[in-house]
Specification:
mainly alpha, Arc Repressor Mutant, subunit A, Tetracycline Repressor, domain 2, 2 domains, 10 helices
Length: 232
């Protein structure tokens, strides 16, 4: 390896390492003050850096926030995708669906601040972009893949307005089962996804306290009921 190549590689490695340190410090800020109060200056102060040094990596607070959101969505999406895969011959769509739902809940309980970042109150003034949209689609599309693979797939009739909206989902999903799913399947998947988020959010944000708490049995029963409703 040439001296120039070695220098470039070392510089890239140093950049990756500092980027990771910045994101780690920003996640700690999320836990302490929440997304709305996230501050590049505070992150820099924690790392012993000048704010200008952090701004070379993330030009604005929103750029840093976007990186955290994409990271959170990708982490949750990877967990759900892994659980939803037909990893063994004969694994049923119902088994894949319940495993995927359980994976999202487990991820949320392990990463409550990251879950709150992407599924809690919107950050005032912040707008996502194509990166956050793509990352945020991973988990729900994994569930939609399972439903599209089911035989028979969910077939409750939908209105013309819902069919038009479902077409947006399949257009964005691209190739694969989700991109070819019928409108009825897409709408059923959206119902299941929003119900799942309601369950997980209720637990993560403490709304089940003094009732179904701990929520293991309630969550398992709810996921099984969702599978029943979908005909899996």
């Amino acid at each position: 390896m040439s001296t120039a190549s070695a220098t470039t590689t070392a510089r890239e490695r140093a950049r990756r390492e500092l980027t990771a340190e910045i994101l780690s410090a920003a996640r700690r800020q999320l836990a302490e003050v929440g997304a709305a109060a996230l501050s590049v200056r505070a992150v820099a102060r924690e790392l012993g850096l000048a704010s200008s040094a952090v701004y070379r990596y993330f030009a604005t607070r929103d750029d840093l926030l976007t990186a955290l959101i994409v990271e959170a969505y990708d982490s949750a999406g990877a967990a759900v995708e892994a659980a939803a895969r037909p990893t063994a011959p004969g694994r049923t769509p119902r088994e894949r669906f319940t495993a995927a739902c359980t994976a999202l809940r487990s991820w949320a309980l392990e990463h409550p601040h990251e879950y709150a970042l992407v599924h809690g109150s919107p950050v005032p003034g912040y707008r996502g972009d194509s990166r956050t949209t793509a990352a945020g689609s991973r988990a729900p599309l994994a569930l939609l893949h399972v439903l599209a693979d089911a035989d028979p797939a969910p077939r409750r009739p939908v209105s013309a307005a819902l069919a038009e909206q479902a077409a947006r989902v399949t257009a964005a999903a691209g190739d694969g089962p989700a991109g070819r799913a019928a409108p009825e399947v897409v709408v059923a998947g959206a119902r299941a996804w929003t119900a799942l988020l309601g369950l997980v959010s209720s637990e993560v944000f403490g709304q089940l306290a003094n009732t179904f708490d701990p929520a293991d049995a309630f969550a398992a029963a709810t996921v099984e009921a969702l599978a029943d409703d979908l005909g899996l």
